[in-house]
């Protein structure tokens, strides 16, 4: 390669592993080069360079740039004009340099991640042109393994194609400050996944704010916590009997003494064992535990525990069932009504208090209030045949639930959990993911298993479910998927605006990071520590990214790339309001709409924007 080539910018000065320091040309009058009619800036952070070594081209990304300081003695000589020889002056007054990180190589026009050989001092360094960029990105496009999400920033409309295998199999984290474009990027990715060229694709989106249903309505089925199907949305139900014992206990009874917890665990196991015989394919009894997803009547459980606490006896020393006092009034499990027994005497005479009572009346009151609370009806009164009768019989089993979630004809499922009470949200999300993951795990050799039909799980607001330093059902399940999911065909996409609040273990399992504009220094530090390929130096540009721009690093792209992300076809609900237009158009809204808003709050439904009051006024005026 001739040193007069227009792409030549300098030589290798030092090599330390994948980090290379480059000394730029002294005779380069400007950092703006014109090559083939197109201009390129030398030393831009995130830009690429090429190091030709024989028949191989090694590619690197710029992570730092600068210039050596002029020594004091030389600076004085320059100012006095004693250094008249400009060549000698250049040699003595330092030079411009940049630090680059090696990431891949190309041989015969085929690009490959990683390098088989390293440059040495004195090797040439060239700027990467659009032709070189097409060599890098073209190998991915030709393999038809990618989905387009936009264009590579700084190039002539080279498509930015995300590798599907890298996205699903290696896990991915999307981070960025509020308003940086995370929701738009997720929508763009899911639109691409739903393309007709991927007829067997499937993705499960956990949507805590209800913002993706409108954006992906053409490709997705939306399940929402509603008492009935509203505006085409399907009710989301999570049968309580699918929860592991510990999660169900904390949700209904709260913390218990260890001996009481063991007794209640044994009782639930007995109830599940008896009810298992009614299943279409009864499991072996020895395989059952209190955590097994076997239906049972939770109202009967409450009634039996409550009755045990209230029972009194005719004798003090022999408190058997035969010596129990007659009920004054029989309760009802279905209505959660307690039995009434004769009150225990305070004078050591009949009726006697139950000496074995657990003193969990307060816990049982909490359980009854939860069972009656309409906000939890999706859990304790799921409908659709999932509610057990007194004996634990059900009409519809858990296979129909998972088939409804991820086995339908559309490629995307959105679980809108915005109406789930916040205190139980991690439990519900953890249970949903555990149900789906377990079914796909145990069916891994079937056509619906994760190995034959992989599943991408998108977890929006991931810091709510995988918090740093805290344990929750969602935390445990997501961590398990992050560690094991790749082997069983379940991929994970964590979306968050606060990466510093996410458990480090979950973030470290992500083989790819997509970092949008991140203004918080603590969050940038976490992103820098999580970036693969030792490219933490690139994190400094995150605060200056434009809205809708992202740094793609890892398995999703052949090289670390700054991408200009296209707009989604339909705007997610979570996008910013259209200001100032919405403040400029029309008159001020009717004050009566606040009544509709309050009514929607109480019913836990979002009004459609049409007020009854306006309709009534319109009808009256028409009359």
Which descriptors apply to this entry?
single chain, alpha/beta, Rossmann fold, 4 domains, 19 helices, 30% helix, disordered C terminus
The CATH topology of the largest domain is Rossmann fold
Runs in which pLDDT lies below 50 for 5 or more consecutive residues are 227-232, 611-623
**Average pLDDT over all residues:** 83
The CATH class designation of the largest domain is Alpha Beta
Name the overall outline: elongated
Q: Give the fraction of residues assigned to helices.
A: 25-40%
| Share of β-strand residues | 15-25%
Please provide the count of β strands: 23
Gyration radius, rounded: 32 Å
CATH second-level architecture of the largest domain: 3-Layer(aba) Sandwich
Kindly name the structural category. alpha/beta
Main β-sheet description:
12 strands, mixed
Report how far the terminal alpha carbons are from each other: 88 Å
CATH superfamily descriptor of the largest domain: P-loop containing nucleotide triphosphate hydrolases
Please specify the SSE layout and strand pairing.
Layout: E1 8-16, E2 19-24, E3 32-35, E4 38-41, E5 48-53, E6 56-67, H1 72-80, H2 86-92, E7 96-107, E8 110-113, E9 124-127, H3 130-142, E10 146-152, E11 159-163, H4 164-169, E12 172-175, H5 182-193, E13 203-207, H6 212-215, E14 220-224, E15 234-235, H7 245-252, H8 258-276, H9 298-310, E16 312-313, E17 352-353, H10 361-372, H11 377-380, H12 398-406, E18 412-416, H13 425-442, E19 455-459, H14 473-484, E20 490-496, H15 504-508, E21 512-516, H16 521-530, E22 549-554, E23 561-565, H17 581-584, H18 593-603, H19 612-622
Helix pairs in contact: 9-10, 13-14
